[in-house]
Amino acid sequence: MSAPQGPITKFPADDLRPSRRFITSHNKEGKGVFIVDDDGDHHRIMVQGQAVANIIYSTKGEKVDMNDDKDLIFARDNEPAIHVPGGSVARLIDFAPGMESPIHRAMSIDYGIVVEGKFLLSLDSGESKVMLPGDMSVNRGCMHKWKNLDETRSGRMLFVLLDVEPYKVNGELIEEYLGDLAGDYADVSH
What would be the CATH architecture of the domain defined by 21-183? Predict the structure, then answer.
């Protein structure tokens, strides 16, 4: 990870409130209890300090195995790359004021939800949509980029990525393309 050059040096961005992650489980009587109250296990500065990612949770497998806390251990011990093959990733990203991501494509279904701010979602076709808090996108493997339209305040989005089968468009296999984001999503799982 390169040293941040932009305004974001930690999670959360300085002008956004801290977010909290609550994880539940069961006590000995089988009742629901909160077992985690924190801000996530994995934070990563991205795009030379123009953004920061916070992994809320990640899973592996088509069906998540919660027995013996296997899912908790996986989420804690593995910081995923862009997505988890055969699994899922929930990631908050804080974007610096006016920040525009490089164009990219993950080979996943990406649910994007604006939490705070105003964003422009642009596709490689030239089409774009403005998204406000509560707006959601479902990106099905398309090349895209995000821009925080507020030039004075950071914005926050939640992304949930689900792995997909190999995908063909017009008979051609579509490949993941991270471009300038490739280093930011290097696999650091251990």
Answer: Sandwich (2.60)
Instruction: Tell me the pTM.
Output: 0.92
Confidence grade of residue 190 (pLDDT, cut at 50, 70, 90)? very low
Residues 61 and 17 sit within 8 Å (Cβ to Cβ): no
Tens-place pLDDT, residues 126-163: 999 999 999 999 999 999 999 999 999 999 999 999 99
> Residue 141: what residue type?
G
> Would you say residue 173 has pLDDT above 90?
yes
* Six-digit token string for 102: 């490089």
For residue 54, list its beta bridge partners: 43, 92
- What does the block give as tokens for 31? 């009742």
Q: How far, CA to CA in Å, does 151 sit from each of 5, 48, 51, 128? A: 17, 18, 14, 19
> String of b and e for 56-91 (b: at least 16 CB within 10 Å)?
bbbbbeeeeeeeeeebbebbeebbbbbbbeebbbbb
| pLDDT confidence tier of residue 59, bands split at 50, 70 and 90 | very high
* Cβ contact 119:155 at 8 Å: yes
**What is the rounded distance in angstroms from the CA atom of residue 182 to the CA atom of residue 170?**
26
What is the SS3 assignment for 182?
helix
Q: Where do the domains of the chain lie? A: 21-183
Rounded Cα–Cα distance for residues 162 and 71 (Å): 16
